[in-house]
Structure formats: C-alpha cells, structure tokens
Amino acid sequence: MDFSQIELFDGISAASCTDMLVCFGAEFDSFRTGEVVCDYSDDPKRRVGIMRTGRASMIRIDESGNETLLEEVEEGDIFGEVLCFGDGGDYVKLICDEDCDVVFLKYDQITKRCEKACEHHSRLVANLFELMAKKTLSLGERIQLLSRRTTREKLMYYFRLESARRGGEFTLPMSHTRLAEYLCVDRSAMVRELKRLTDDGLVRVDGKKIRLTQAEF
Amino acid sequence: MDFSQIELFDGISAASCTDMLVCFGAEFDSFRTGEVVCDYSDDPKRRVGIMRTGRASMIRIDESGNETLLEEVEEGDIFGEVLCFGDGGDYVKLICDEDCDVVFLKYDQITKRCEKACEHHSRLVANLFELMAKKTLSLGERIQLLSRRTTREKLMYYFRLESARRGGEFTLPMSHTRLAEYLCVDRSAMVRELKRLTDDGLVRVDGKKIRLTQAEF
DNA sequence: TCCGTTTTGTTGCATTTGCAACAGATACCT
DNA sequence: AGGTATCTGTTGCAAATGCAACAAAACGGA
C-alpha cells in the first residue's frame, strides 16, 4: 500500500502508517459509479471517511421523494455522519459519481488517546484537523449560497464563485437538473431564471458552458 | 488565568497552557453586548476564535442591506474567517449578543509544527479537532435547514429540531425578526406561514413559546 | 445500432414569496 | 416617566416559485 499520495498521511512514514491503521480501525474500500458508499439511515458506525480518489454526492431524500444534493465530496475531502448531516430524520446516502477509493477511520479512536502511543498519531490528528478546516470552509460556502433568497441570487453567487475558481468561462461540473438540486430550487423555475439572466445580458449559457458577462465586474 | 474551565485546554496543565499561549499567538479579549467581535471585510488576520463565555451572531450584510444570520456562535464554539464564510464578497461581522470572552489563536501556528516542541501542542490540536467536528455538525444542520424549499418546511424542520433538543414546549432563543433572518425568508411571509401552521393545527405559537402538536408524532 | 433512461426546454396555473408600508406593542436607556 | 428604537401584526400587490405535464434531445449500455 502506497501512503505517500494520501494527504491524510502526509508527513508520516509508511511504517508508522501501517502501525496506525490498526489503532484507527482503518478500512480501505473501493466503489464503482452509481454504488452507494454509505447509507446514513441505518449506519451507526461512527466512521469518518476520506475520499482518496473519485467523486461522490451526499444526497438527501425526504418523505415526499424530493432529492437534495447536500454536498459534493471530492478527492481529499473528509465526510461522515458523525461530522455532518447527522440526524435530520430523512434518508441520506453518499452515492458514487465516479469510481472511487475511500479510507474509513473509526471516529472514537481518533480523539481517544492511543494506548500504543504511536509517535505519529498526533500528526495524523493534525492532518485531520486541516481536512476538517477545508470541509468547514466548503460548508460555509454552501450556507452562503443557500442563504440567498431568490433563485437569481443563488445562480449569480454560484456562477461568481465558480468563475473565480475555474476561470472566466467554465463548464458546469453537473447537469442542470443536478444544479437545481444543489441550489435547492425547482428545475423549471431555475431554467426560466437562467433565461432571464441571459436576456438581461448577465451571463452567456451554452449547455454546460457558462460565462459571466464583464458587466458584472 | 484559570484554564481549567476551557474546553480548548482540556487535559493540559496550567503551566503548559501558559507556555503554549506564546506558540499560538493567543490573545484574550472581552466584548460587550452589541460590540463587533470581528469584522471579516478587512480582517486578514487568519485567526481562529473560541467563544469562552457568551453568545454572538455571525451576520452578513449584502450590497442591498439585507441582513442574514449566518450562524449563532455559542459557548465553546469555534469560529473564524479561515474556517468559514471566508470570501463571499459581502460584509460579514460577528456581533455580540451577550457580553462575551474570547480567545484567539493564529491559524497558521496551529498546523505548523511547534519548534519548541511543547509537549501538549498535539493535545490542543486534538481538542481543536473536536471543536471543529462540533462546528461541522452544526453547519450541516444549518444546511439541512436551508435546503428546505418552502418557508413551511423550514419552520417545521427548525421546530422539530428545537423541540427534540429543548423539549416539547420551548422558547425561541431569538426574536421572530431574527428567526426570519435565520431561515432566510421574509419576515412578514414567515409570520403569515406561522399563522397557517397554527390554523392547520400543527403548532401552537404564543410569542416566543412554541409547542408542536402531537399530530406531528 | 437500437432501446431505454435521463436530461432538457417549455408551458399553464395556483400558490407562495418578497417587498413596501404602517400602526400598535414592547423593550431599553437615561 | 419619557422618549427612542426595535419588534410585532397586518395588508395589498407584483413577481417569483413550485408543481405537473409533455415532447424533443442527448446519453449510455447491450
């Protein structure tokens, strides 16, 4: 097993990694596109997952069958019901968008002091801290997005963010249908608003290609 | 200075605490109700704050002057622009709801390996990890709330959560005006929906006293 | 290539929502 | 007690939104 590429184990020797895997109850697993990585309705495993490669979507399905895209889990991201989306009552699952490799750690073993006093235990916790900080940032960003009141504002906020991140013209990383779920608005209403935005000359939309008009800057 | 009551320093001797304060560039500060704890528009200090006592509200004000309550920071919570609500572009500030005591740490010093090799450095990072996990949970909850599409769903989700936490009948921890900002909906629209909910017999509302009707269970 | 599934574009309609405005109630400070 | 600021309850109205439905286009697997 090659640990060198895994951010989680950054700064920790391969030998230590192997040792520590036992302490943390580490489990490695792989999933194929479309498979369910975790099902948080009946999964009291208290595990923390780290996405090594691939992408997955945290999806909530409420009693009416509405699907909501809670978050996108990407390479290097940390996830888990202990961390997030704990108890809402609805059905929550993590579903694979692309084949992915995952490491699971037992949450309780992380904060517990290690009896074996592995020398790098603390380094791993520090790494986890950074992963958490990154996650917190992305959750905060999501809150900023969802706290916009209108579909228009949500779209513009999202576009500005992606535009700043990926460059002036960028390609949506998901389908329009999915984007509507992400923004938590009705798809048809979103498409309507998208048309208004283009009519007002604020954006150019061509399928998944989006470009903000300079008027915005 | 008494460190024993501060969760952040849990498991760390007073002597070590004093040592470490230097490593982390710790600053203690107090604020009075109404004062601005942090102003994230022009504050590139990269500090992490821990609320020792008191309560504060993270508020965003957009260019139109709309206020949004991003999060409630309570005793023991961790906060900071490095962690959350980083860059949206709008004006974001943390404002004191009750007199509060705060510790600030320099974010970069936390993850950096300590040259002085303070023995408890790693314990503190572990404590921070737990604080972060707690924060992540509350952010996740907030996302669950904001991802509801209608005002009715937001209200009911919020009431169920508070009801489970504080008991069958509970008192809103904020004014109706503030609640509307928290749910990110128009206040008058919220009041209207609140009335419909009572008409439908789902809740009883008496000022800040809320009770879910058993029909819900 | 063919077939089934998903996505997209579109529309009508009832409902919800944001917005603005105002008066009365309440809380807060001096 | 008086005065100011905030909160609450309410309304009308225009606009946005959710919902349902359907056909065409695109996609993906056998």
3D architecture notes:
Chain A has 217 residues and is α+β, with helices and mostly antiparallel strands. Helix content of chain A is 36%, strand content 28%. Chain A has 6 helices and 9 strands; from the N terminus they run αββββββαααβααββ. Chain A has helices at 14-23, 107-111, 121-146, 151-166, 176-183, 187-199; strands spanning 27-31, 36-39, 47-61, 67-73, 78-79, 91-106, 169-171, 203-206, 209-212. In chain A, the strands form 2 sheets. In chain A, strands 1, 2, 3, 4, 5 and 6 form a 6-stranded antiparallel sheet that branches. A 3-stranded antiparallel sheet of chain A has the order 7-9-8. In chain A, a hairpin with a 2-residue loop joins strand 8 (203-206) and strand 9 (209-212). The termini of chain A are far apart. The model of chain A has no long low-confidence stretch (mean pLDDT 82). Chain A binds chain B through residues 60, 66, 68, 70-71, 82-86, 88-89, 110-111, 121-123, 125-126, 128-130, 132-133, 135-137, 139-144, 146-149, 157, 160, 184-186, and chain B through 60, 66, 68, 70-71, 82-86, 88-89, 110-111, 121-122, 125-126, 128-130, 132-133, 135-137, 139-144, 146-149, 157, 160, 184-186. Chain A binds a DNA duplex (30 and 30 nucleotides) through residues 149-152, 175-177, 185-189, 191-193, 195, 207.
Shape of chain A: elongated
% residues in beta strands of chain A: 25-35%
Largest interface: A-B, 42 and 41 residues
Using only C-alpha atoms, the radius of gyration of chain A works out to: 20 Å
Order of helices and strands of chain A: HEEEEEEHHHEHHEE
Oligomer: homodimer
- What is the overall pLDDT average of chain A? 82
Structural class of chain A: alpha+beta
Approximate helicity band of chain A: 25-40%
How many β-strand stretches of chain A?
9
Counted by DSSP, the helix tally of chain A is: 6
Poorly predicted spans of chain A: none
Q: CA-to-CA gap between the ends of chain A?
A: 48 Å
